[in-house]
From TrEMBL:
Protein name: LacI family transcriptional regulator
Keywords: DNA-binding, Repressor, Transcription, Transcription regulation
Gene3D superfamilies cross-referenced by the UniProt entry: 3.40.50.2300, lambda repressor-like DNA-binding domains (1.10.260.40)
Residue ranges of domain Transcriptional regulator LacI/GalR-like sensor in the record: 182-335
Length: 347
């Protein structure tokens, strides 16, 4: 890989078979260019270690240490191994590597409980000697509480608990639910079914609150009653599908919001059993972390999971370089992919 000082716009242009003008335009975010081309240019520039003057100035303005500072080693605690965790890990690792640092993931073993066993696990994995700790979403709240007490710099990739003194960042699921409700409302839907858990995680509770707030704001009476929706735990999948099937076959609802990743496909399964078609019989919005390969044209808000990981890395380095700065709570709002699973209802 060329050293950073050897990489120029011409290097990137030659590498991709583009003009310098096109490369410069892509890196400056100017309009009038295919998004695929812009992403290709940005990705290759990152691989080569090239940054524009504006990006260098941004690092300085954000008080993020220069690439040539002391290399540091960070840990990231993960519950389970899913694409959801892969996206978080990928974002943090890419950004840290760009800035000259490293990241090692730690998969928390199943069955670990509060008490001496958990602290022994922390000691065994040298977490007390990490330069900083990234706490991912889906960590049990009891474990998160203990980890937040550790005397190392931390960034929480989640909504923060009340009164928590920690830098945090999250893809804004409350905004995503509100945006989804707006989309359905403007397509004529007034009877919207909420079809995911509302417990036990903080993010689940905030999704449900956002749904109720949106229903009240839009004047959709009766939608705030939990009993009207499919919000029981999905662990018993048979019972959950029976409950969902009963709601869908009643004909009372014209649209469904699946507000937790990987649950929308179960709504497709229920619809298939009932011989209902989407969006002819009901519209569907799924909140997926990335495009579902089986249903690529599903309408969905963009959840910026990988981007949150990148920003988390910057928050960590900023905290280490500036320990007296006030804590930040950052939310990244994504756009909305219209897809083909929303039908317009004419009044």
């Amino acid at each position: 890989m060329p050293r950073k000082k050897q990489v120029t716009l011409q290097t990137i242009a030659d590498d991709l078979g583009l003009t310098i003008h096109t490369v410069s335009k892509a890196l400056r975010g100017l309009p009038g260019m295919a998004e695929a081309t812009r992403k290709t240019v940005a990705g290759r520039a990152r691989e080569l270690g090239y940054r524009t003057k504006e990006q260098e100035t941004g690092l300085f303005g954000e008080r993020i240490p220069a690439v040539y500072g002391k290399p540091r080693r960070f840990a990231m605690l993960i519950i389970g191994e899913t694409n959801f965790h892969r996206l978080q890990l990928e974002g943090v690792r890419i950004r840290l590597n760009e800035l000259g640092h490293s990241l090692y993931p730690l998969i928390v073993p199943g069955g670990l409980t509060e008490g001496a066993g958990f602290r022994q696990w922390l000691d065994k994995n040298d977490l007390f000697f990490a330069d900083g700790l990234f706490l991912t979403a889906a960590i049990p709240e009891w474990m998160e509480t203990l980890l937040l007490q550790l005397p190392v710099p931390k960034v929480l990739i989640n909504y923060p608990p009340d009164l928590a003194e920690v830098d945090s960042i999250i893809w804004d699921v409350e905004y995503a639910v509100q945006r989804s409700m707006e989309e359905l409302y403007h397509h004529g839907h007034r009877r919207i079914l909420y079809a995911v858990d509302i417990e036990p995680l903080r993010g689940f509770r905030l999704r449900w609150k956002a749904f109720k707030d949106a229903a009240e704001r839009l004047g959709l009476e009766g939608l705030g009653d939990p009993g009207e929706h499919v919000n029981s735990p999905a662990g018993d999948r048979t019972a959950w599908l029976e409950n969902l099937g009963g709601k869908l076959s009643s004909g009372r609802f014209t649209a469904v919001i699946s507000a937790v990743p990987n649950m929308a496909e179960w709504i497709y399964i229920a619809a298939s059993f009932l011989k209902l078609n989407i969006p002819e019989h009901f519209s569907l919005i799924g909140m997926e972390n990335e495009e579902n390969p089986y249903f690529p044209d599903m309408s969905r808000p963009y959840l910026l999971v990988r981007e949150v990981g990148e920003r988390a890395a910057e928050l960590m380095l900023r905290r280490i370089a500036n320990p007296l700065l006030p804590f930040e709570q950052v939310r990244l709002k994504g756009g909305f992919y219209a897809g083909s699973t929303i039908r317009t209802i004419r009044s």
